[in-house]
Amino acid sequence: MDRSARIQVTYSGHVHGVGFRFTARSIALRLNLTGFVKNLPNGTVEVVCEGEKRSLEEFLNKIQENLAGYIGDSCIKWEPSRGEFTSFEIRF
């Protein structure tokens, strides 16, 4: 079994107003990930996810597959899991 991990990702580009948060939440729930997705005031989207490393990698791939036309750039930071989430939510 893979170890649990955490990713913090900032997506930039045309990522507001295109269903990014709802798509990210849907993908995360299917992969049993916990965390949140949130629009930031500077026009980027922040995603923080925890789960099995393999599932986190799949999450990143699915986001790219589904939203590539809107993503200009992404910055991914890997960390050890903190176990602070019980679900995946959209934060406002």
Care to describe what's here?
α1 (20-30) runs antiparallel to α2 (53-67). β2 (34-39) and β3 form a beta hairpin. The protein has 92 residues and is of the alpha+beta class. It has a single domain (4-81), classed as Alpha-Beta Plaits, CATH 3.30.70.100. It has helices at residues 20-30, 53-67, and strands at residues 4-13, 34-39, 45-52, 71-80, 88-91. It has two helices and five strands, in the order βαββαββ. The protein starts with a strand and ends with a strand.
List strands and helices in order, with pairings.
Elements: E1 4-13, H1 20-30, E2 34-39, E3 45-52, H2 53-67, E4 71-80, E5 88-91
Parallel strand pairs: 2-5
Antiparallel strand pairs: 1-3, 1-4, 2-3
The level-1 CATH class:
Alpha Beta
Question: Main sheet: which strands, in order across?
Answer: 4-1-3-2-5
**pLDDT < 50 runs, ≥5 residues:** none
* Total of helices: 2
Q: Quick check: average pLDDT?
A: 96
Number of domains: 1
Instruction: State Rg.
Output: 12 Å
Number of strands: 5
Main attributes?
single chain, 92 residues, alpha+beta, Alpha-Beta Plaits, five-stranded mixed beta sheet, 2 helices, 28% helix
Give the gist of this structure.
Helices cover 28% and strands 41% of the residues.
